[in-house]
Design goal:
Elements (H helix, E strand, L loop, with lengths): L11 H8 L6 E5 L3 H15 L1 H24 L4 H29 L5 E6 L2 E5 L4 E4 L4 E6 L3 E6 L7 E5 L8 H12 L4
Length: about 190
């Protein structure tokens, strides 16, 4: 600290924003949608594979049980068929239910303004500001409509989904992709 200068009362989020080079930072402005979360959950599922294997095993066992009961009885019963359909519906609908729940949690917060720079990601809305450094992420994956950043923890409990529709200037997506490639590996 220099003489005659005090850090008391300064906002670290605002201070870190002034350090970011405006030419390299990319700002995305968007309203979160359930489809954004669903895209992130699908990416996580493909990378983790444990949930995918578990859901596949449950589906395989359910179909096997239904087939076995049908063969043993010699006819198709209503109850085992209804249970099988319920299992299929739950396995198909679970990620969508999760995405809808996340949307209920974040949707009321309004418009999000995410600034991505070599220093990290700063995400603001009307109620909160979240600053994340690149060390939080193990990498990212690009989908058709999103950039999905995956946390470093073994269960990948945290996802940051940056929708491409949030870019408003020509060249923003290329600059964003360059920042992501520079700061975290592509998975």
């Amino acid at each position: 600290m220099t003489e005659g200068h005090s850090d008391q009362g300064t906002n670290n989020a605002e201070t870190s924003d002034r350090v970011v080079d405006e030419r390299t930072a990319v700002e995305l402005v968007y309203r979160p949608q359930s489809a954004d979360t669903l895209a992130g959950l699908r990416v996580r599922e493909r990378i983790k594979r444990a949930g995918l294997l578990l859901r596949g095993a449950v589906l395989f066992l359910s179909i096997g049980h239904w087939l076995l009961s049908t063969v043993v009885r010699g006819r198709v019963d209503v109850f085992p068929t209804a249970v099988l359909l319920l299992v299929v519906l739950l396995l198909w609908g679970y990620p969508r239910l999760q995405a809808a729940q996340v949307q209920r949690l974040v949707g009321w917060q309004g418009e999000y303004r995410a600034t991505v720079s070599p220093a990290g990601i700063t995400c603001r809305n009307d109620h909160a500001t979240l600053i994340q450094k690149w060390s939080v992420f193990q990498g990212y994956r690009e989908t058709e409509g999103h950039f999905v950043l995956l946390s470093r923890d073994p269960n990948i409990m945290c996802l940051d989904v940056l929708p491409k529709r949030g870019a408003h200037e020509a060249g923003d997506l290329e600059r964003l992709r360059a920042i992501l490639d520079q700061c975290t590996p592509r998975i």
